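Protein record

Derive tokens from sequence
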Amino acid sequence: MELSVLNIKGEDTGRKVTLSDAVFGVEPNEHAMYLDVKQYLANQRQGTHKSKERNEVAGSTKKIKKQKGTGGARAGSIKSPVFIGGGRVFGPKPRNYSFKLNKKLKSLARLSALSLLARDNRVSLVESFTIDTPKTKEFKGILSNLQSNGKTLIVLPSVDKNVVLSSRNIKGVKVATVNDVNTYDLLNTEKLLLLEESVNVFENLFSAK
């Protein structure tokens, strides 16, 4: 698959880059993507939820009524879960929701997501550029030239602080490096903007695995 390289004005530079089928042309594995996204979302959970059980709530332990003769069920403590203000039965406790996945499966998931975007013609190549000082207005102009109005994921070959600072206040725009991009971000974007150098970094990254 060949893609034309655009400049930051949205103009065709006349150069074309061939995307490797080993990275952008694999058969998408839906289950691998599902597991990788599930792990990503699980890792975002704090797991600090907590409710008090009957031994933790404040209240008297005095028997609130006699055992027999009332016509109702017996009750021994106001902290019982059947009463308002009592403890909760089997309530949530702090826990870690994260789980492990095989590295090869995670690689397959990312390759599947990249291939889906390429198959749907949602990948654009942009020649490498730099921003001297962080300016949101200037960066919005670049996105407008590239016709990126919806959710956009920009993948850089390496960290560029000025690009990150220029984009972080723009709704729906996320910047990541090749090493940091994940399956969730790839599937959650409408358009993928790859810097020209990022293609080689992607190919080198996955060929080494």
Q: What stands out?
A: The mean pLDDT is 91.
